[in-house]
Amino acid sequence: MRFKTTLLGKPKHSDLVSCVGWMSPDEVFSCGDDHQLLRWNLVTNETVGVSEFPSDMFPLELHWLPKTSVHKTKGGAEVFLLTAADGKFYIVGSNGRVEKVVDGHRGAVLAGRWSHDGAGLVTAGEDGLVKIWSRSGMLRSTLAQVSTPVYGAAWAPDSDAILYTAGTSLIIKPLAPNSKPIQWKGHDGVILKVAWNPNTGLILSGGEDTRYRVWDNFGRQLYSSSLHHHPITSLSWSPDGQLFAIGSFNTLRLCDKAGWCHSLEKPSTGSIFNLAWSSDGTQVAGACGNGHVIFAHVIENHLEWKNYEATVTSRNSIALRDVTNEAWEKLELRDRIIKLSLSHGYMVIVTSSQGYIYSTRNWNTPFIFELKESNVSLIVQAERHFLLVDGGSVYVYSYDGRVMCSPRWPGMRTDVLNSHTVSLSNDTLAIRDKTDEKFVHLFDATTGKGLNDGKPWSHKLEIVEVALDQVGTPHERRMAIVDRNRDLLLLTLQRVGSMGRAVKLGGMVQSLCWNDGANMLAALQDAKFTVWFYPAVVFVDRDLLPVTTLEKDASEFGKNAAVDSFLDTQITVRRSDGSLVTTSVSPYPALLHNYITTKHWDDAVRLARFVKDDIVWACLAAMATANRELNTAEVSYSAINEADKVQNIHHIKEIPVKEARMAEMALMAGHVGDAEVLLVQSGLIFRSIMLNLTTYNFERALQLAVKHRTHVDTVVAYRQRYLARFNKTETSKLFSQYEKQVEVDWNKITEKIEMEYQKEREKPTTSSTQNFTDT
Length: 775
What we know:
By secondary structure, this protein is of the alpha+beta class.
């Protein structure tokens, strides 16, 4: 990936250009020390003067009111904020007319930015003040005062805090009163520019020490560049937060969000004082010290999926290659390419006006569909359909270009959605809420209707990442989440009713990725690279979790690495310097998954006997237990020397009642509550009482016995035997009461228990089936 730069032979401005801003993806406004406001049209290549400002007004920063803002001026006109060296800031219309002038600071207004919702703005000045203003230019508050000029300021992703510079330090000050600011030393020299991306929450800073640095929102440094030859005079995040641009003297860099550099350009521009990205994230405009405005287009975006490679070679063309036979294709599109995605056998391309869907089996005849708002910021693919975030809406399309649904939720914000907070499978869509990051909205991917009774699923901590597994039926769909503590949890999604509980898989998880063809999960943990070959084992038999997990040393990947993809048996990891490292895992667990999906249990057992690997046997044991295949489970557990589990399965196979067998299987997985609910709903009150007695939950057993007026003496007898064994006296008032009311006769109790079991055996609808799959 690199910039393709465009620079006119002769500058249009007669003096230094201080600021630029995009009114639309094809139109740029620029302003400088010649007091001219120019409009650049990139389609017609025309440049026209819009207006001329007074000779004593020297602009410093330009920022357009966000497109998502509902706070438009009368008549819906578009306006921008312009700060100047005379201590004033100006609100200017797209026709160049100054609509508002506000005297804001003593000395120059060095920075000015609209909030993300457009409801207010922040200015920072040479006088060391940071001020918050209303949309109309009324002063709301003076947020901070420092002893040095404040060269940069930026809004937090939720517009609830301000990041500003103070010499060599960076400070985050919440807008809430009496809240404590976060301050840390950012650079060795004066910090000149800052930016805070609303999508990823990452902070970017650059200064006179000739370095740029990437931080998280707690002030932890994620990346520090090497020394440049000149101070960093401009920087800017792309709208989706995946890239950023850095400007310096005769220098323009394109960098990944992790900090490493994609490309370095050396244009003859002088210092680049300001950089701005177009709303579609494909172009950058720069304000140059020699009067030029430089334009840079992102090209050579490279995608890989299995044996296919796709590379954007120009604004509207893509080169395709099949590495197995070296076959080449070139796709020429009518309009500028904005986004593309290659996965699951399809390539989705979004241009400035249309969408194209190509199948890897046929590159000649794509499905073409019209975009709703032509402002696509995200593409997420699944096997059967894909998702587009287009403007203010989310759409799920089939691969023939048909809109399947457009889910909505309260407080919907699409400008902050990214691949970590949105996940799509064949039947489910999961989106983390931005207003409250503890919530995940769950939808049916084909209809857009909400799951979990229409309510978001909630976690006790803020959620950083969500990921749905890709294989299996809707009733087996599972979601992995990573929370603020970097704990990895797994949740089974219910199609009807409320969701179950999340179970912890691991901790200190930096990055994760599901396999595309089997429900295996790869993750980078603190100093380990971990693959869970059957993550759902935590719902079946947690004792098998270590046996079904592969752990490797992750030192070869370095710090801040991320799992890029998990295709077949190949896992690709991107290191912090941008290089890709590939590692592989055993092919047998994936093959086992395929056998289980197609219900070929005999083939699965033959595979495990051939491989003779404890991981394969343990996965098979858990899969067989989950699918109620007792014969296979018995063989698998015996192969890994789990004698107690084999004995328990023998016991379960002898139970004549299907519901009781299912309850015993749930109990074997450790789900005591689920087992009791199943028994009570099936009318097996005696077994539910015995279940609580064998798990020493005497109070619950007594509650059931009293409620259903049966086996009260049995419960009291078991309680007395338990206390006698440990030489304890009764402390429960409830048990003391019923000890006086019932007579404990072990002979009668034994007869009653035997009669209950005899009734079960005599039921005509039951049989001692060894394998049962209906639930």
